[in-house]
Amino acid sequence: WPVLVSVICSPQNYPLYIRSVPTENELKFHYTVHTSLDVVDEKISAMGKALVDQRELYLGLLYPTEDYKVYGYVTNSKVKFVMVVDSSNTALRDNEIRSMFRKLHNSYTDIMCNPFYNPGDRIHSRAFDNMVNSMMMQVC
Length: 140
Description:
- Helix content is about 45%, strand content about 25%.
- The mean pLDDT is about 85.
- The chain is an alpha+beta fold and about 140 residues long.
- It has one domain (about 1-135): 2-Layer Sandwich (Beta-Lactamase).
- The longest helix has 22 residues, at about 25-45.
- It is built from four helices and five strands, in the order ββααβββαα.
- Strands 2-1-5-4-3 form a five-stranded antiparallel sheet, with helices on both faces.
């Protein structure tokens, strides 16, 4: 499992969706994700108006640790996506991470279009879970 955690956070930084594989070190990953949200906010404020002008949603590598690499993505509505990847996986390239975020964003958009979904609620969707699981397994 090269992708260990996929997280979607609201503009106020509370989690809307968390999927971690394997689940043994889940608490450690929660800490890693929350510390990365500070880096996301720094990158967004540093980009400022340039982010709006370029429409570049992918933030790239937020920071590497000894064991993991943390990547970020932010939507136009300031919803943040964070992915923690195993550092030992050297086959995973930046453009593959970018396409995974795009896929995640498209599925998130589908959920937002559901008239029964209340924006800001946690995401409980079997179809979304299946998409995330297949995405995580696809990069193995």
